[in-house]
Amino acid sequence: MKKISSRLFQIILVLVLSQSCSRDDSVQVPEEENPVNEEIMRIPLVVHVIHSGQDIGEESNLSEERIKRQIEILNEDFRRKPGTRGFNTHIDGADSKIEFVLAKQAPDGTPFNGINRIDSTLVKVDILGYGPNHYAQYAYWNPEEYINIWTTPLPRSTECLALGLATGPDVDLPGIQHLAIPQPGDAEGILVSWIHFGESDIECHARHGRTLTHEMGHYLGLLHTWGGSTCEFNDYCDDTPAVDIPVYGRTAFQGCQGEMVQIENYMNWSHDDVMNMFSKDQIARMRYVLTHHQGRNSLLHSKALENP
């Protein structure tokens, strides 16, 4: 994710989860599934705040205000909302008409604010490493009813190194093999370091809440713009200029065909204050996943979207 795996450990991720969205004659998103004039798709989220016993609002036990602001940012980005950092006037940019809602009820049907706090010092889990299977031991709700998001209590020394990670959907689109597809029995969801969840004043380019935007793109089937790291096999989105190397920073450069790369695309590892667009083909790809992937599609009809 803009960072590791999907933004994860930018270095580790390049090796672990190299996403791609490429140009190839494999299964492409049908033109008729263009997002323009489509109905808005709403998806429920549960944020599992894994902390180390701090009071609410301190360190990894993030405040409710910061969490809600992060979801606002996510929606500003996906809806290309005017007057926000998520707005763009790029000819290939568009409103995805995908929105995210903090779950309104828990699995047992009780009222819920979408935030599930877990004191990791009180829960004994096996050490499995950094990934959904590890954090699912603290909390894991039905992924057909909720998108599970874990804010991870990593040490401050990981700032700007470990950002986030997401699993991808197993669906009939080209390049899916470059995503982190869960195996049978594996957990699926999104990890984001608490340091990079929401807005903050940290001394890092990833401080405006775009880590979650990037990782959500992976969760909905998007690859990094460089995809398979070749000019022929990059991200399978024709309106993102082909590039065969990771795109970092805030300065555009020439890609494979001499076109300037979309430095502002959320599926790069660009600086947070530069990113502000999903392309029309990327949006069509995400909406295809929400329509054709059984688990992702079921989210659109989840009871968690409604008050109990």
Summarize the model shown.
The chain is an alpha/beta fold.
Topology:
Layout: H1 4-7, H2 10-16, E1 41-51, H3 64-78, E2 98-102, E3 115-119, H4 132-135, E4 147-152, E5 164-166, E6 190-193, H5 210-219, E7 248-249, E8 269-270, H6 280-292, H7 294-299
Parallel strand pairs: 1-2, 1-3, 1-4, 4-6, 7-8
Antiparallel strand pairs: 5-6
Written account of the structure:
It is a single chain. Helices cover 19% and strands 12% of the residues. Strands 1, 2, 3, 4, 5 and 6 form a six-stranded mixed beta sheet that branches. Strands 7-8 form a two-stranded parallel ribbon. The protein has helices at 4-7, 10-16, 64-78, 132-135, 210-219, 280-292, 294-299; strands at 41-51, 98-102, 115-119, 147-152, 164-166, 190-193, 248-249, 269-270. β1, α3 (64-78) and β2 form a beta-alpha-beta unit.
